[in-house]
Design a protein that fits this description.
two-stranded antiparallel ribbon, globular, alpha+beta
């Protein structure tokens, strides 16, 4: 990348950042959400029906285990520590599902930072950016993926029991992630900003 192009990108990034952070602290609210969320990201071995179906079975088993792991977790640090300590157990759970359904490939699970575009899950919308994610790769991991929010438990069984999202994300964070048309343009601006920032960092 030429220096002039990099300078142009930096200027554009600055302008976008100014717009974001001038909109009632929306940028900071997005940052707070990203710092207090753990995503679940599962990649299937391939796009064939069998591999995609077993991906969903693994998902169900991991979410059930997650509901037990996160019992008592109050912060993202708590959730991360619990996942790290139970990672071998989660691998065993996923591998058992594969074995029971006749699949001979393995599974790897790691906690890592991943970039996500703006995504909506049921009634929640998560701003683009880097999140801590429990990344689950089945076999080669070349198939379509599946994702959700593992902590706070927006896609865990606990979510249906009235999980107190406000206590984890705060009132502003909980309000932000609830899908709302008036946030649509601001989410798009945040996504453009995060993409440019990621491109510059990775250059």
């Amino acid at each position: 990348m030429k220096k002039s192009h990099k300078a142009e990108i930096s200027v554009a990034l600055g302008l976008i950042a100014a717009i974001i952070f001038s909109i009632a602290g929306f940028g900071k609210e997005c940052t707070d959400v990203r710092e207090n969320v753990v995503r679940l990201h599962i990649l299937a071995d391939s796009d064939c029906d069998a591999d995609q179906n077993v991906k969903l079975l693994v998902r169900d088993a991991l979410l059930e285990s997650g509901a037990q792991i996160f019992s008592g977790a109050a912060t993202t640090d708590d959730a991360r520590d619990m996942l790290e300590s139970e990672k071998d157990e989660l691998i065993a759970v996923a591998q058992n599902v594969l074995n029971e359904n006749g699949f001979d490939y393995g599974v790897t699970i790691n906690l890592e930072k991943e970039y996500f575009t703006t995504r909506t899950y049921d009634t929640y919308t998560l701003p683009a950016g880097e999140y801590l994610a429990l990344k689950v790769i089945l076999g080669s991991g070349k198939g379509h993926n599946w994702w959700c929010v593992m902590f706070p438990p927006l896609c865990l069984p606990a979510a249906s029991d009235g999980a107190d999202i406000d206590a984890i994300l705060g009132e502003d964070g909980a309000k932000l992630i609830q899908s709302n048309p008036r946030y649509e343009m601001r989410f798009k601006i945040v996504e453009v900003y995060e993409r440019i920032k990621k491109a510059i960092i990775n250059y």
